[in-house]
């Protein structure tokens, strides 16, 4: 599945029990609703079919504003509320050259330490 809004695009793929979410471009105000829908699609797919891990690849995401970031916080909150056997892990793949990712992903990891990991 692929979605695009202006300079932002997302794509979701599955490999066994792993969902891959690829985000690219600029997640500015025009992408807020699209990110919300995409994260809802990921959550629904993870609850529908056996999923142990969601890989969120941000290596080609140049920017994310605070409104888009809030959609991730809401998603992590829903994942944390799932019963243990239904909960899935989330691993963010980041680009160490994008300083906003290091700061922002650290906050997400602190918010949901039992769910989130970050790979640089």
Salient structural properties:
alpha/beta, six-stranded mixed sheet, Transcription Regulator spoIIAA
Written account of the structure:
The structure is a single chain. The chain has helices at residues 32-48, 66-81, 99-111; strands at 2-5, 8-15, 18-27, 53-64, 89-93, 116-119. The model has no long low-confidence stretch (mean pLDDT 94). The chain contains three helices and six strands, in the order βββαβαβαβ. It has a single domain (2-119), classed as STAS domain (Transcription Regulator spoIIAA, 2-Layer Sandwich), CATH 3.30.750. α1 runs parallel beside α2. β2 (8-15) and β3 (18-27) form a beta hairpin. The longest helix is centred in the middle third of the chain and has 17 residues, at 32-48. By secondary structure, it is an alpha/beta fold. A six-stranded mixed beta sheet has the order 1-2-3-4-5-6, with helices on one face.
Sketch the major β-sheet: 6 strands, mixed
The CATH top-level class label: Alpha Beta
CATH topology group: Transcription Regulator spoIIAA
> End-to-end distance, in Å?
26 Å
The CATH homologous superfamily corresponds to STAS domain
Structural category: alpha/beta
H/E topology pattern: EEEHEHEHE
Number of separate strands? 6
CATH architecture: 2-Layer Sandwich
Low-confidence runs of at least 5 consecutive residues: none
Range of strand content = 35-45%
Indicate the percent of residues in helices: 25-40%
- What is the total number of structural domains? 1
Mean pLDDT: 94
């Amino acid at each position: 599945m692929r979605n695009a809004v202006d300079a932002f695009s997302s794509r979701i793929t599955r490999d066994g029990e792993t969902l891959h979410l690829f985000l690219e471009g600029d997640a500015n105000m025009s992408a807020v609703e699209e990110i919300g829908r995409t994260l809802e699609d990921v959550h629904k797919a993870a609850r529908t079919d056996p999923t142990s891990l969601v890989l969120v690849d941000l290596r080609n995401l140049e920017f994310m504003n605070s409104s888009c970031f809030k959609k991730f916080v809401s998603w992590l909150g829903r994942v944390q509320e799932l019963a243990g056997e239904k909960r899935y892990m989330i691993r963010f793949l980041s680009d160490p050259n994008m300083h906003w990712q290091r700061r922002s992903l650290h906050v997400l990891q602190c918010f949901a330490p039992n769910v989130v990991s970050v790979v640089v």
